[in-house]
Write a structure and sequence with these properties.
Elements (H helix, E strand, L loop, with lengths): L5 E7 L6 H9 L6 E8 L5 H11 L3 E6 L5 H10 L5 E4 L5 E2 L3 H11 L3 E11 L5 E3 L21 E3 H7 L10 H12 L1 E13 L8 H22 L9 H7 L7 H13 L6 H5 L9 H15 L1 H19 L7 E3 L14
Parallel strand pairs: 1-2, 1-4, 2-3, 6-9
Antiparallel strand pairs: 4-8, 5-9, 6-7, 6-8, 9-10
Helix pairs in contact: 5-6, 7-8, 7-9, 9-11, 11-12
């Protein structure tokens, strides 16, 4: 069998009820020269049977199975390790790729041979499929450590992925951003300013108090790493530097709880972070922390009005941008003057 052009990779864990829609969105791509590597790790909800159904219908699907849950970074590395192509397209099991996604990205990669990664813009829906958030066109071209694209929109070169060291388990739950920062140290990352993906805001994947606490701590690691990265720290020294800064039995930054509250607000639900903040929040009175506390309070008391306000702000900023070209725009996570210091591989 000849090797295809693109490997689409998708780690899966308990992906019902959205799995069928996600798989079908890839199989219906206008660009057809791909393999679809799906790694089922530890699913117990009927996901495995549905994947077998799809694999029998389409020979481009290659199924992997692990009886144990591997976690975000390990499962992501697992599917990439089994990919046969140099071009790797990421997909998540609750999102929907638009029909032209792969075609537009493959063509863009051919036009930009020095690109390590190309991501696209995206819109979002809630758990019922209701439109929630439009694409953030206003973010294209901004120097920011958080990109305008998201994880399931990326197409990257396997060679760049290997050079950066792949995903790191120490950055679980923000392993994508951790990878982007390291990719940017030796390569160029671009945004294709077209809406080619629909991402689902779902809160079902974070159930269970023990896992909620783990994710809270991971988001706190991200916030501390974000601050260190902005200050010029080498991404190769993160996230363990942030974990050391937090210490054991640590208090969590107010900003980390604000990040945690944002997902349920966008998903149309009332965030429950307030009860988890008790006894765990690090007292801070700087402007960022006070604004974070205010946003948590607003989202808890009136999530609908907060969602309307955020949506209005996105639309206003998009309108101020005016018409957006479909040409690639390079993403810079920080200004060149913020030279990294620390260790590199």
């Amino acid at each position: 069998m000849p090797q295809p052009t693109v490997s689409v990779v998708m780690p899966v864990h308990n992906a019902l009820p959205y799995l069928d829609e996600s798989v079908e969105s890839i199989l219906r791509q206008s660009f057809t020269d791909f393999e679809f590597v799906i790694g089922d790790n530890g699913s117990i909800d009927g996901t495995s049977a549905r994947l077998q159904h799809w694999a029998q219908r389409d020979s481009r699907i290659r199924l992997l199975h692990n009886p144990h849950r591997l976690g975000p970074a390990r499962s992501s590395n697992w599917v990439v390790e089994h990919a046969r192509c140099d071009l790797i397209a990421r997909m998540d099991a609750d999102d929907v790729a638009h029909p032209e996604r792969l075609l537009r990205q493959v063509r863009a990669m051919a036009r930009q041979p020095d690109a390590s990664l190309i991501g696209t813009l995206f819109d979002t829906i809630d758990e019922t499929g209701r439109p929630v958030r439009p694409p953030g066109f206003f973010r294209v071209g901004r120097v920011s450590p958080t990109p305008a694209f998201c994880h399931p929109t990326i197409l990257l070169r396997r060679s760049a992925f290997d050079r950066a060291g792949g995903y790191r388990s120490a950055a679980d739950y923000w392993e994508d951003t951790d990878l982007y920062w390291r990719l940017a140290e030796s390569g160029r990352l671009f945004v294709l300013p077209e809406n080619l993906m629909t991402v689902r805001h779902s809160t079902s994947s974070s159930r269970g108090d023990e896992r909620l606490i783990r994710v809270d701590e991971a988001v706190d690691d991200f916030c501390r790493s974000l601050s260190a990265y902005r200050s010029g720290c080498s991404p190769f020294d993160l996230p363990r530097a942030a974990q050391r800064a937090g210490g054991s039995r640590r208090k969590l930054l107010p900003l980390s709880f604000a990040y945690r509250a944002a997902l349920p607000v966008w998903a149309g639900k009332r965030p429950d972070v307030a009860r988890r903040m008790y006894g765990r929040i690090e007292p801070r009175f700087d402007m960022q922390s006070l604004m974070a506390a205010a946003s948590i309070l607003w989202g808890t008391l009136a999530p609908r009005s907060m969602r309307w306000f955020l949506l209005a702000m996105i639309r206003l900023r998009n309108a101020r941008m005016g018409p957006v070209s479909s040409e690639l725009v390079e993403w810079l996570p920080r200004r060149v003057s913020a030279a990294p210091h620390g260790n590199q591989p």
